[in-house]
Write a structure and sequence with these properties.
The complex is a heterodimer of chains A (251) and B (269). By secondary structure, chain A is an alpha/beta fold. Chain A contains 9 helices and 10 strands. Chain B contains 9 helices and no strands. The chains are: A alpha/beta (251), B mainly alpha (269).
Chain lengths: 251, 269
Amino acid sequence: MTTKNASSEPMIVAKDVCKSYGDFQALKGVSLEVAKGEVVVILGPSGSGKSTFIRSVNFLEQFQSGEIRVENIKVESGEALRQIRQEVGMVFQSFNLFPHLTVIQNITLAPRKVAKLPEEEAKQLARELLHRVGLSAHSEKFPDELSGGQQQRVAIARALAMKPKVMLFDEPTSALDPEMISEVLAVMKELAKSGMTMLVVTHEMGFAREVADRIIFFDEGKIVEATTPQKFFENPSHERSKLFLSQILKR
Amino acid sequence: MTTTPTKAAVPKAQAAPGAHIELGRIFLFLGACAIGFWVFFEILAVVLKYMPEPIGSRADLFSSGAKQTLVLTLTAGVFGLIAGVLAGLGKLSKKPWIRIPTDFYVWIMRGTPLLVQILFMYYAVPALLPWLRLNEFSAACLALALNVGAYNAEVIRAGVQAVPRGQREAAESLGLSSGQTMRWVVLPQAIRIVIPPLVNNIVALLKDSSLASTIGLLELSLAGNRISSETFMPVPVLTTVAAVYLLLTSALSIITHFLEKRLAVGRRN
């Protein structure tokens, strides 16, 4: 595997993860290792289980069998889960900012209530993060006063405020107008460059190609292909990947 | 830091996300309401005094009845709100030993007449629990609180469920416990949703409090009833009673309308 800055120690280890909703099997034995500092992009058609998998990593989805470990801590309900969730930041397709709180309150809530940071320290941290995502001017606004792209950047800042070791992105640009996608991707690229371990579900092929250390292709609840971006986009080894690419690139 | 030119009402640089300053404001607001009601009753008493017979000479009975009605409503309303929040959250609990009793409570209170509940509380409960001696006011208040609490429970449950699931997921993915998620993320949003239906329940409670007259609590309708049969003049007397009820329900609606605006400091999507 060609990884830019990944050390050998795995950050996330998933073994044979299975999840079903009634009769429907969303995940049929998914195994994956993500190294420290690695950027892994998960591609695949709708309903292939990629979101379900990424949501399993911080246990927003409870899987029925298999095992996921984050920094060697087992992901399961109980005391350890809150610890894991503090170390795993998550960005959602629909932003999920807290509409009753201002931008800065959105960011400081978890540092203050969970990490028990004093107020001034939390605010200072929030201001730094807002600067990092280019939204210093908006700290006192409410989420619904911001554009979608701005909201998503706030959501990234909010997740970063807990100083996570891993960031999960669940289709972060799918709900955005086209012209706002690039501003969010720029923040994500900067984050990748800074050495953050990232697991990204997306349909942005340009981002996948440019930023990913590794592409994981999902179909029907299984990993079909796991390879480098170059190999995946230029010479995919599976029929299903070829079909997916031809349909995506046709647009 | 930068400030936004919009929204003068937005509190700047406050201590806690939302809650603390809002709580302070609410207490201030409740104080203002208490003063408002005191003034209201003073004016009411004067106005009634100058009404023609048979109202004028019995103005004191009318206004003390109206006061009793309001005190009964507000006391039962506060306890009913507490009962409603507890039962509403209880209904949402995953633990069956919490959920089943609360479901049972709501089922009983909503499925039996309030009149029977008041009579039961006054006549049957002391027979069952001889150590528990309830006077007219506490029996009526308890029955009304438990009754409105059951209706509030449904409102609270619906309000909490109306907060999008993504909100809870976002909070929990940040490491907030489920209690913290409820306290800081779900409830502040649910409050905005539940205020209008809760107001409805309070207005209904004020009118329903007239049933306390059946156990001899001298509130507004019993006062009216007595004066009416004393004077054989039901038309002016009962019209006055109805008008005072209307004033009280209107005042409650106006107050809660302002409360709603106060709480809407942050907005919903």
